[in-house]
Amino acid sequence: MISGLFAALAAVAVVAAGSTASLAASKSKPPQKLVNYLVINEDSIPEYLSGRPGDPKQGRKLVISRKKGNCLACHKMPIPEKADHGGTGTDLTGVADRMTESQLRLRLVDPKRIIPDTMMPAFYKIQGLNRVLPKFKGKAILTAQEIEDIIAYIVTLKE
Length: 159
Known about the structure:
Layout: H1 2-28, H2 56-64, H3 95-98, H4 101-109, H5 144-154
Helix pairs in contact: 2-5, 4-5
């Protein structure tokens, strides 16, 4: 009985040591470097994050992609070839008539700055987030160029 107890404790120690080692390995990776940006009037980012405009064709692919933008999970969009569109987010049909490119950029980068209770994730932020899986800590969902590509597509959505 005592030897069984020691074996169980030894197994727990090995698992704990392995967890600590993997946690230390995940913490040793430096966080992703994000481009500094300036928020104007508390509702917009006027400058391209990547230093250049995005590609609307690539942006459309990212919007549809379930592994990247996944915008259709929450938003209705004028993308008829995709049947499943979410209804929890704003309908993005004609959004470029309602918001400027700069306003859209901030909403994609850090939507909680505009609507604190929004369910929409911050796609270009690594600090101050809650419930992030360890493998995603220190990583933004999208790169600066991917943000610009999506913005380039979204600004084509006019009535």
